[in-house]
Amino acid sequence: MNARVETLTRPASGAAQSVRSRWGFPELFIVSQTALPALLYLPGSQQFRLPIRVSAFAISLAAFAWWQIESKIQVPASRAQSWLAAIMALLALMLFHPQTSTLYGGVAHIAVYFAVMAPLFWAPVFVRTPDRLARLLWLLLICSGINAVVGVLQVYDPGRFLPAEFSRVITGNRDLGLDPVTFIGAHGERIVRPPGLFDTPGAVAGPGMSAALLGLIFATSAIPFWKRLLSLGLAGAGLAAIYLSQVRISLVMTGLMIMVYFLTTMRQQRFGRATQFGILSGGILIGSFVLALTLGGPTIGDRVMTLFSTDPISVYQNARGVQLQITFRELLFQHPFGAGLARWGMAASYFGLFTLDSPSLWAEIQFTGWMIDGGVLLIALYCGALIVTTLSQWRIATTSSDGRLATCAAVVMSTNLGVAALIFSFTPFNTQIGIQYWFFAGALHGVACSYGTEGA
Predict the structure, then answer these.
(1) DSSP code for 364
(2) In whole angstroms, what is the distance from residue 133 CA to residue 130 CA?
């Protein structure tokens, strides 16, 4: 297989070359997921915060509507689609839960869920070749890398590169002080955890994960030297942005994604590529850490070292373990079948209406959100969908007879596993990072089906 799986991007021929040469909606979609939220970076944009935030989700819903009405291409359903359909049916039923905050809020909450999942249905129609999927991954690297570079520059020169306005994470929680969103730099100055091209402190950590993994992958691919050099630079910026954001879970998940890709390439018997990737990964992890220390001071090192101060379970317990305990020791018994919709999250913030008997709830991790929205059944269904998707991607990566398809599957699986693992520390499947997950799952499924392979 080593001879067949050399690069993400290899020139195609014939009809495939024609497809590869065209740019269209998928490329626009990838760019929009960075460009639309980046509008909040502009001065005076906060008054348009709701439509700007909604727009990134609305474009996914619009694509689903187009697929239902206009698309003439038929793609076999993926294994995960039936799981997602069951999730939507459960959420529709939960709309009538007596503790759903408001009808509008409940509908908005369902819309967020569906906007995140919808790309699994429509992406296979648009993405049919490994070359196009590789191009979309390259675009994701560029968008995420630019985001990460801006994040690093925001620490280097905050007066020039920090956005003029921040979201209500700061303005609405002044009583908490600046400690949760800042740290003390090398010269005693207070540094804001970089938001990147968003308006929320620390938000650059998500794009930093994608930039780090994809940058390392493309840097070890058989592409022009300047692209490999650019990829390596963006990978370093991604990791430096994660260090500077002080979001430790993003650092851990980046390490997980790097390890998964390394092991998958070994399983594909691409030993030379795996060795090169592993060595380069170790070097860039250290180099970006040195850069972050130079910009952010010893506080960065202290924050990273807390990951090794005790055993991993204790580290997690001190960070997000309390939320997991609340979910399975309290909410499980209080609301085993859900507590109603729009009780937490963006829909609750904008459309919720609460009382003493039905107060707003807080979810810092995905398990808590799922327990609130649909109880143990929703947790089982969504976890089932993620497991089925991962196993399908692993099967394509390790059994496909086409080297380019196997390579793309390894990249998508590694990237998506990092997102899926965030359910223990974040709520990825109610945010844009979840849209990215299902988009690439759907894109890989479309490519696999076009090659006569059982899809994802």
Answers:
(1) S
(2) 5
Cα distances (Å, whole numbers) of residue 302 to 245, 290, 297: 13, 13, 9
Whole-angstrom Cα Rg for the chain: 22
The CA angle 407-266-412, to the nearest 5 degrees, is: 30
Q: What residues form DSSP beta bridges with 191?
A: 183
Is the Cβ–Cβ distance between 365 and 424 less than 8 Å? yes
Give the model confidence (pLDDT) of 326-365 as tens digits: 999 999 999 999 999 999 988 888 888 888 878 899 999 9
Cβ burial of 352 (10 Å; 0-12, 13-18, 19+) is: buried
State mean pLDDT over 116-141.
95
Indicate if the pLDDT at residue 176 is higher than 70: no
Question: What is the pLDDT, as a whole number, of residue 15?
Answer: 43
Q: Residue 305: CA atoms inside 13 Å, Cβ hemisphere, count?
A: 6
Q: How far apart are CA 76 and CA 448, in angstroms?
A: 10
Question: Which candidate, 203, 92, 100, 243, places its Cα nearest to that of 431?
Answer: 203
Q: Which residues pair with 192 in a beta bridge?
A: 182
Q: Which two tokens stand for residue 450?
A: 């076009």
Mean pLDDT of the chain: 88
**Cα(34)–Cα(12) distance, rounded to whole angstroms?**
29
- Concatenating the DSSP letter of every residue in 276-338 gives HHHHHHHHHHHHHHHHHHHHH-HHHHHHHHGGGSS-HHHHHIIIIIHHHHHIIIIIHHH-TT-
Rounded CA-CA distance 59/78 in Å is 22
User: For 168, how many CA atoms within 13 A lie in the half-sphere containing its CB?
Assistant: 9
User: Higher-confidence residue: 355 or 281?
Assistant: 281
CA-to-CA separations, 133 to 13, 171, 389, 423, in angstroms, rounded: 16, 40, 17, 26
416: left (phi over 0), alpha (psi -120 to 50) or beta: alpha
Q: What is the pLDDT of residues 11-66, one digit of tens each?
A: 444 444 444 457 899 999 999 999 998 888 777 777 888 888 899 999 999 999 99
Residue 350: CB atoms within 10 A of its CB come to: 15
Q: What pLDDT shows up at residue 57?
A: 95
**How does residue 214 score in pLDDT terms, banded at 50, 70 and 90?**
very high
Q: The pTM is what?
A: 0.91
